[in-house]
Amino acid sequence: MKKIYLAYLLLIILSACGSKNTNSVYLNGEIKGLGNDTLYIYGTDKFYNRMDTLLVKDDKFSATLTTDTLASTWLQFSDGTEYPIYLDKGDNIKIKGSAAELTSLEITGNVPNEELTAFQKELKGLSTPSEKALEEKAEAFINSHPSSLVSIYLLEKYFVQKPQPDFSLIKEMTEHMTGGLKDRPYVDELLDLIQEEEKVSVGKTIPYVNLPNAKGTQISRTSFKDKYLLIHFWASWDPQSMEANAALRRIYKKEEKNKLFALWGISLDIDRKEWEEAIKRDTLKWEQSCDFSGWNTAPIKQLAIQALPANLFLSPSGKIEGKNMSEEDIKKKLEEIEQKEKEKKESEKKLKKQNRR
User: Fold this and answer.
1) What is the pLDDT of residues 258-298, one digit of tens each?
2) d(CA 59, CA 325)
3) Confidence of residue 215 (pLDDT cuts 50, 70, 90)
4) Per-residue pLDDT for 150 more than 70?
5) Which of 7, 105, 229, 293 has an alpha carbon 20 to 30 Å from 178's alpha carbon atom?
6) Contact in structure between 163 and 154 (CB atoms under 8 Å)
């Protein structure tokens, strides 16, 4: 019995001596031309929410990090460039590249890093890397890698970040993803966003929204009876909103006397003075509303507005006929409405003539 106990004790001691932190991730990198610098690595989801500093000396850097599960992280360079890195316990990650091409690194050490490296090499092989070609490559990867964390990165980069995301396509691609990938915080939030977007997609009727104008009068869609309505979301602090205001000013100048069309500006400003000064400076003569709640203003959440500037084109009944339309799109839409109105009047005239007979 004593011999068995001693043998068991010896086994425990040997195991302890040979053990190491199994949650460790070893990171080694060499980026030509980086010299002496400071890099940062930080997490993108709840699985890895800490930040680490990496000191670069003579193009090289190394670090020992810890994580208890596969995590999506970002490597941030001093010029602001960010590059995704995937870390899992026990990994030995090696990073190679050039300071001249920080957006195309070669990373090995686990499957997702090597998948992204292979994808980047494939993009380099494109003779004409147009936006459409890049999106097609990204979509093909996402559909053929339903459980890869790289698919989340490509989905966000090539589809979600677009000025006018195609949420039906995004939803279609997420449906191919495995349950584990869908449970990731980013995808979970994205699916919630898509659900909200679907409530205010083209063809749907918008929910009731109202906001006060400068005089304190509550304005809603029903304030513009029997008119097509363009709701424009903007803010005085957003440069792109100023450009959109200029475009709408050109449209308003032409359509001011149009009895079938109206404009309604909803601002995300939080300072009344800045809002009023912007209205005066940009000569915004159409109806304007603001409750000075910024992104917390109710219509923003009700109508799933994610970025500025944004707009919704509504029929007289409140049905959404267009979203985030360009100046040319709006002009074309108004021409179509004018043509329909002419055809309607001509049809009514013919009907009256027939009735007289």
Assistant:
1) 999 999 999 999 999 999 999 999 999 999 999 999 999 99
2) 47
3) very high
4) yes
5) 105
6) no
Superfamily, domain 210-340: Glutaredoxin (3.40.30.10)
Backbone phi, psi, residue 123, to 5°: -65, -35
Of 2.60.220, 2.60.40, 3.40.50, 2.40.30, the CATH number of 18-117 is 2.60.40
Residue 190 CB contacts under 8 Å (≥ 6 apart), including other chains: 155, 160, 170, 174
Domain ranges of the chain: 18-117, 126-199, 210-340
pLDDT value of position 351: 77
pLDDT in tens, 305-333: 988 999 999 999 999 999 999 999 999 99
Maximum Cα interatomic distance, the chain, rounded to a whole number of Å: 121
Three-class DSSP labels, 24-61: EEEEEEEEECCCCEEEEEEECCCCCCCEEEEEEECCEE
- The count of other CB atoms within 10 Å of the CB of residue 320 is 18
SS (H, E, C) the chain: CHHHHHHHHHHHHHHHHHCCCCCEEEEEEEEECCCCEEEEEEECCCCCCCEEEEEEECCEEEEEEECCCCEEEEEECCCCCEEEEEECCCCEEEEEEEHHHCCCCEEECCHHHHHHHHHHHHHHCCCCCCHHHHHHHHHHHHHHCCCCHHHHHHHHHHHHCCCCCCHHHHHHHHHCCCHHHHCCHHHHHHHHHHHHHHHCCCCCECCCCEEEECCCCEEEHHHCCCCEEEEEEECCCCHHHHHHHHHHHHHHHHHCCCCCEEEEEEECCCCHHHHHHHHHHCCCCCEEECCCCHHHCHHHHHCCCCCCCEEEEECCCCEEEEECCCHHHHHHHHHHHHHHHHHHHHHHHHHHHHHHC
